Amino acid sequence: MKLTEKTELYSRGNKHLTGRYKNHSVDISYIEYSPFIENLIPYWYFSCTNTKTDDSYNSLCDKLEFSTYQECVDAAIKYIDKSLKKKEI
User: Fold this and answer.
1) CA–CA gap between residue 78 and residue 34 (Å, rounded)
2) Is residue 5 a contact partner of residue 14, using CB atoms and an 8 Å limit?
3) For the chain, how many helices (H) and strands (E)?
């Protein structure tokens, strides 16, 4: 999956990347700073939307936060592959 960085200029260390994988639009975000949370531990999370069926998923809904970028990308790919297998059955 190829990801393109779409981080805004004044994001205070937070990052946002977008890409596509098997008809899914994938957003991967890194949260390093929040004005609302003290002592925030930085984490990665992903959200994906199937562009054909409008099914969407956000890893934060299941309280999944990842400590590394690669863990987050692998989890996104795994989730998409798993959801496509479910639809085939």
Assistant:
1) 28
2) no
3) 1, 5
Q: How far apart are CA 76 and CA 3, in angstroms?
A: 12
CB-based contact 83:74 (threshold 8 Å) = no
Q: Which two tokens stand for residue 44?
A: 């990665």
Q: E strands along the chain, which residues?
A: 3-5, 15-21, 24-31, 43-50, 56-58
User: Which residues of the chain are under the pLDDT cut of 50?
Assistant: none
Tabulate helix, strand, coil % of the chain (nearest 5): 25, 35, 40
Q: How many CA atoms lie within 13 A of 85 on its CB side?
A: 6
Work out the number of other CB atoms within 10 angstroms of the CB of residue 55.
12
Closest CA to 44 of 53, 56, 57, 31: 31
- pTM, two decimal places: 0.83
Predicted pLDDT at 37 = 73
